[in-house]
Amino acid sequence: MEDEDKIKACVLKYYKPEQLDGIKLIGGRAIVTLVNAAEDQKLTNALKTDIAALDGITKVSVIYTAAKSFGGLKEPEDMWQIRGVKKIIAVASGKGGVGKSTTAVNLALALADQNKKVALFDADIYGPSVPTMLGYEGIAPYSMDGHTFEPFDYMSIKSMSVGTLIDKSQPLIWRGAKACGALQQLLCDTNWGDIDIMVIDMPPGTGDIQITLSQKVRMDGAVIVSTPQDIALIDAVKGINMFKRVNVPILGVIENMSYYICEHCGHRADIFGHAGAQKTAEAMGETFLGEIPLHYAIRENADNGTPIVFAEPESPYTEAYETIAKKIIAKL
Ligand SMILES: Nc1ncnc2c1ncn2[C@@H]1O[C@H](COP(=O)(O)OP(=O)(O)OP(=O)(O)O)[C@@H](O)[C@H]1O
Ligand SMILES: [Mg+2]
Q: Ligand 2 centroid to 204 CA: how many Å?
């Protein structure tokens, strides 16, 4: 057994696997980081004694942290409890209209194609579009008991949208606490069942509601969508910085509307420029997850309630989303 595995075995005698955040070995010194574990002197001492008894270990430190899983908040009770959901990722962008929802919906379907149980939550109080994209626009969520909601079970994913509570023809007058209250209720009072990955389609921008969501929901990572233009990239950087500030890891950046291939002559046109998102991601030390071309089939299918991953499973566009989905699963 490697030294790290031996230390891990010691930790797992006292703590749950999800509470072990990391093990570092520097010379003979072992540093164990625990996350969301209650600080208990007796347990700490027992753990230290066990690790110190291993060959070659001269010093043991145990660090308790709450920062990672709790988005920088100190009180776990403050967090919104979303039952049954193992991993949560946010799909976000600093700028509006870059294809966040299109990406979130297709990515959710692509994750489901990788044999994951997937939920999609539409948190975009400014312009919820998941009901349109999945084809349940105008249908109210169903409640069996008058208190909780049943998620929409369309295509291969479960979903719920703030749009089911909003009259699209009226300007939205929810602000601050009211918007957050509605989001919390929908997220926490939906009977999601057993879900491996929940994808959250975030509202565009980096305002209070986005920050509150990122802090209150135990997010495992954020995916930033950008188009290649400078103006979108500047906002993508803002988005990355917002998540970093609340300790949500960045899973990577996707370049949407990356290039266009002409149906007729095969000519490739970089309408908004190309590779800007990749360069920005690299400059910020973040992963570049991939590029999605600009194509009318992607728009048409999203607008018609049959996202391309569902409508054209064999197309190169679906493949692009699936490649990104695989990278995300590997990172989670
Ligand atoms: N790769 C693509 N190719 C062609 N059209 C696309 C692509 N991605 C998105 N679109 C289209 O661009 C428009 C905006 O996309 P979408 O609604 O997903 O953006 P958004 O970032 O969620 O916007 P908002 O900020 O308003 O929520 C939609 O009509 C969508 O169909
Ligand atoms: Mg959207």
A: 7
